[in-house]
């Protein structure tokens, strides 16, 4: 799935209410874990019926009957399906929408069996002579009669018992007819709604991954059960039907007295059920004629959006990115067309359905007049991620969900290569460090992290599969594959991919198949490695966490140790590798050439790393390796001196790394917290984005912990001192804020400059932002605020203003036709300082007429980021828990994040007790939030300890720095 669990980072870091640098989604401290890991927790009720839980126990002893297993037996294999579906876009009763359909699946019997198990969930199956299906023999085979059929709710099967066996080698076809609800639950075949010219429009669309194809029609719903699909969709005149393959031959038909269109689709390639998609809508598209190459590319969206040109950027970039991947994989695009469609209600970021990729509107549509460069980057990276899957994931598919990390980690890594090709001036290959790697290090440094690779037998139930869609899977997966690609070279990496895709196309694999092909490529290229690819990589994927490498530049001694953010935490999962890694240590000395050293033991000595009386040493160049670095204090001092005075000798990624490593090492009590704070001193001379952003992410935690204490004043004074030169720099290069900086990363850093400056009270900042907003209020049809700064400006103006500003922003939010614009306003509305407005906004968040269900938990979380909103949001969540739990639990992907969001400032005994009370009061209705709650308890305790230990030295340091002259 495309980045389902991400929150847009740009929005998350632009709030400045009451001087809080809002929520840097990923901060390098353990509280983040509560948000990160739980982003994907979704309650997947096995059925809507009341008997769902009575027959299902979450930890069954080995079940006796085959239908009590969550995995299909290997006796039958689907060959092809013929599926006809008719979604009704008009309700048949009050808010009840349905679809009906029938399906014939051709089955090959692999092993003799008198039982058919086929997935079916929440479907009403028609019965024929008392049975839920009809069975025929093919090619002269005779079908046994059905003795008993029933729906096994807990495991989501249609169970068919037969009077005599199906014989190996024979073919059969199974017919089912069914109806289902086209509900708004964002899973399976579902409906999405939007307003156009005051008219409510309904579309039918799908989200199958991981286990919801079975909600659309009975099917063998496992990724290795690949088959060919012949789809037919019945729909109303004035609408269009889309699916994975090209539509053809629409004919007029009459059904139940209605004149309708029946659209057929060409047979698909051999593919997995989770990659199916079908949409009925009245959207329009822009497309290319197959000029560049023989693939037709179309971008579909709401008519207004296409007319306004919002699909143009996606269209412009899709062709080149497809071309890039054809080159990179050395393998042509497997399909004839590539449809990409923006869906108004969508739970993930995007979904790589083969040939019909579905997106959230913000991930596909871009409006140059309205959207920021961050919006644009989001579009190009998500498109790139999804297109990468067309080969890796779709053409060659993992055998089971336990290898999801390879699928998603890979797509995440190469999405930056594709985006870099599409936007060569953006430094996308560097931004992966900030967007993926640094953030996930904070998660993976906890004792409760988990290895990338899971055992197949541990990932059986749908809810456990869903849980795998986390940041470890996506971002750590990307980080270790990037590291591998760097040490075997990108060329070798891609030539291994090529032979892998060739061998396994239209088939399924396990991750060791990839290692085998990369090893072949390594051997062929003659790349020297100290161990085989598989042996090196096993250390990174089979055990959780990563090392901190400590280099002593006095003795040349180099050691590694499992890095844990909380030094008191206990790792209770043993690792067969004793938490040791094979570490590719890249390093430079005094700005010389880059060298590489393989650390293969717990401890080694490399005399080349010894420094004489002058000079410095820097390791993990460009953060190519997934590890942190510590040094002897002498080298730290030399690095800091260098950073402060001649820091251009240190690559920009490493200037960010020095900040991030020291803050994390301080948290782990491996260096003094003042060392970490001192790394931010060079920022007064820094204008590059990455060091600033990393510093901001790290200081975010200090604000969360201290923004209600006496540390706040000196901390603000120090921030003001550091950011003033940056603010002036941008004022100058934008000619008094009249033009955009040219460089992509400068555009980002301009946001940091304005946002931090306004919150720290830098002269001229507040006036700047409130005036811009006032001008817009005077003339709503004419918004001249530069799109990159919109979030910051809206937020600041609403924070400084009252009900007038709020109501204006609300009406603009309701009127917005560009999704990214609506998203910025939705966020900015949470910035007000007036409690009654915040309370009203909280109430709106649970009213689907006002805030889309997909956005409810984000809205509450945004409000909780505001120090004034935080206690209100906590009260609100407690008071409305039952309602939230029952109406927003499933499909929304962000349930656990809500708990993390509203509790992340918690740092007192009193708050800890409140959490315990909440847990007690709601026992039995916490579902998957219970894990998030456990983590919130753990984080709160960690915060209490951290504040106790660090408040005094931090206060002292900020106080003395704030009053000392600028260095
Ligand atoms: C199908 O019906 C539509 C609307 O009634 C009509 O415009 C169209 O010409 C018909 N097409 C055919 C092939 O009969
Ligand atoms: C940290 O450094 C400060 C200032 O250099 C010093 O006063 C303090 O004692 C150090 N703390 C520890 C735990 O070493
Ligand atoms: C920016 O504004 C200041 C004061 O208003 C003025 O002195 C300066 O010349 C302006 N700079 C540019 C590039 O317009
Ligand atoms: C909102 O949109 C409607 C219809 O497009 C328009 O009549 C109205 O003036 C707009 N409101 C604002 C505040 O722009
Ligand atoms: Zn993906």
TrEMBL record:
Annotated site location: Transition state stabilizer: 474
Pfam families in the cross-refs: ERAP1_C, Peptidase_M1, Peptidase_M1_N
ERAP1-like C-terminal domain boundaries: 616-940
Main location: membrane
One GO molecular-function entry: peptide binding
Binding-site residues for Zn(2+), renumbered to this chain: 385, 389, 408
Similarity-based family: Belongs to the peptidase M1 family.
Name the UniProt record assigns to this protein: Aminopeptidase
């Amino acid at each position: 799935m495309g980045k389902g669990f991400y929150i847009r980072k740009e929005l998350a870091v632009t709030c400045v209410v009451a001087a809080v640098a809002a929520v840097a989604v990923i901060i390098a401290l353990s509280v983040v874990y509560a948000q990160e890991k739980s982003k994907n927790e979704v309650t997947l009720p096995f059925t809507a019926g009341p008997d769902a839980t009575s027959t299902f126990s979450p930890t069954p002893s080995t079940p006796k009957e085959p239908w009590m297993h969550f995995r299909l037996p290997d006796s039958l294999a689907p060959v092809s399906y013929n599926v006809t579906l008719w979604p009704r876009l008009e309700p048949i009763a009050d808010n009840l929408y349905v679809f009906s359909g029938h399906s014939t699946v051709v089955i090959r019997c692999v092993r003799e069996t008198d039982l058919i198990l086929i997935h079916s969930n929440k479907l009403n199956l028609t019965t024929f002579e008392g049975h839920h299906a009809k069975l025929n023999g093919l090619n002269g085979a005779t079908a046994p009669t059905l003795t008993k059929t029933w729906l096994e709710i807990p495991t989501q099967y249609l169970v068919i018992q037969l009077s005599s066996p199906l014989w190996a080698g024979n073919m059969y076809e199974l017919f089912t007819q069914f109806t289902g609800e086209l509900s708004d639950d964002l899973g399976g075949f579902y409906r999405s709604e939007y307003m156009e010219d005051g008219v409510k429009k309904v579309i039918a669309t799908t989200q199958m991954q991981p286990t919801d194809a079975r909600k659309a029609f009975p099917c063998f719903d496992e990724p290795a059960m690949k088959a060919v699909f012949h789809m037919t969709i019945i729909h109303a005149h004035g609408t269009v039907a889309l699916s994975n393959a090209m539509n053809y031959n629409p004919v007029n038909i009459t059904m139940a007295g209605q004149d309708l269109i029946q659209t057929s689709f060409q047979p698909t390639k051999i593919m997995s059920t989770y990659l199916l998609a079908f949409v009925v809508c009245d959207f329009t598209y822009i497309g290319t004629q197959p000029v560049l190459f023989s693939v037709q590319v179309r971008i579909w969206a709401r008519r207004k959006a296409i007319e306004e040109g919002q699909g143009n950027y996606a269209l412009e970039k899709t062709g080149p990115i497809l071309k890039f991947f054809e080159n990179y994989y050395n393998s042509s695009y497997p399909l004839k067309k590539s449809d990409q469609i923006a869906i108004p209600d969508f739970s993930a970021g995007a979904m790589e359905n083969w040939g019909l990729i579905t997106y959230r509107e913000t991930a596909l549509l871009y409006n140059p007049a309205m959207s920021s460069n961050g919006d644009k980057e989001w579009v190009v990276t998500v498109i790139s991620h999804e297109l990468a899957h067309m080969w890796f994931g779709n053409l060659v598919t993992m055998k089971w969900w336990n290898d999801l990390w390879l699928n998603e980690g890979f797509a995440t890594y190469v999405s930056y290569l594709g985006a870099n090709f599409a936007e060569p001036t953006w430094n996308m290959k560097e931004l992966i460090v900030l967007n993926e790697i640094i953030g996930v290090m904070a998660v993976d440094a906890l004792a409760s992290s988990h290895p990338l690779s899971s055992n197949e037998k541990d990932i059986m139930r749908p809810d456990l599969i869903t849980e795998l869609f986390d940041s470890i899977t996506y971002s750590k997966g990307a980080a270790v594959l990037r590291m591998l690609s760097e040490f075997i070279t990108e060329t070798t990496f891609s030539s291994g991919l090529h032979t892998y895709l060739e061998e396994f196309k239209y088939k399924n694999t396990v991750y060791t198949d990839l290692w085998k092909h990369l090893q072949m490529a390594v051997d062929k290229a003659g790349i020297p490695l100290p161990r085989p690819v598989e042996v090196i990589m096993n250390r990174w994927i089979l055990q959780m966490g990563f090392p901190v490498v400590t280099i002593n530049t006095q003795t040349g001694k180099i050691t590694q140790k499992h890095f844990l953010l909380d030094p008191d935490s206990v790792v209770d999962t043993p690792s067969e590798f004793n938490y040791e890694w094979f570490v590719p240590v890249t390093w430079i000395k005094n700005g010389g050439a880059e060298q590489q050293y393989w650390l293969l033991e717990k401890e080694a000595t490399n005399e080349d790393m010894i420094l004489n009386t002058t000079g410095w040493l820097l390791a993990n160049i460009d953060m190519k390796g997934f590890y942190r670095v510590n040094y002897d204090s002498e080298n730290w001092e030399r690095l800091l001196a260098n950073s402060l005075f001649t820091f251009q000798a240190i690559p920009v990624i490493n200037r960010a790394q020095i900040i991030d490593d020291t803050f994390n090492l301080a948290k782990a009590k491996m260096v003094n917290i003042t060392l970490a704070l001192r790394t931010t001193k060079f920022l007064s001379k820094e204008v590059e984005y990455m060091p600033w952003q990393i510093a901001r992410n790290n200081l975010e935690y200090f604000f969360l912990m201290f923004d209600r204490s006496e540390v706040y004043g000196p901390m603000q004074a120090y921030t003001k001192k550091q950011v003033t030169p940056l603010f002036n720099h941008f004022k100058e290069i934008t000619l008094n804020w009249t033009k955009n900086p040219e460089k992509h990363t400068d555009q980002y850093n301009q946001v940091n400059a304005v946002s931090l400056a306004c919150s720290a009270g830098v002269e001229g900042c507040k006036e700047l932002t409130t005036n811009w907003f006032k001008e817009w209020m005077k003339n709503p049809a004419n918004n001249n605020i530069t799109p990159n700064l919109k979030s910051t400006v809206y937020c600041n103006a609403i924070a400084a203003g009252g009900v007038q500003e709020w109501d204006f922003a609300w009406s603009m939010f309701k009127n917005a036709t560009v999704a990214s614009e609506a998203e910025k306003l939705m966020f900015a509305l949470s910035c007000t300082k007036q409690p009654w407005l915040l309370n009203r906004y909280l109430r709106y968040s649970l009213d689907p007429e006002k805030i889309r269900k997909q956005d409810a938990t984000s809205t509450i979380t945004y409000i909780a980021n505001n120090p004034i909103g935080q206690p209100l949001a906590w009260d609100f969540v407690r008071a409305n828990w039952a309602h939230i739990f029952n109406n927003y639990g499933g499909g929304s992907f962000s349930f656990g994040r809500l708990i993390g969001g509203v509790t992340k400032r918690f740092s007192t005994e009193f708050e800890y007790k409140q959490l315990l009370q909440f847990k007690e009061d709601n026992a039995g209705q916490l579902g998957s939030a219970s894990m998030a709650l456990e983590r919130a308890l753990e984080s709160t305790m960690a915060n209490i300890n951290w504040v106790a230990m660090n408040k005094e030295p931090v206060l002292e340091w900020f106080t003395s720095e704030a009053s000392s002259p600028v260095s």
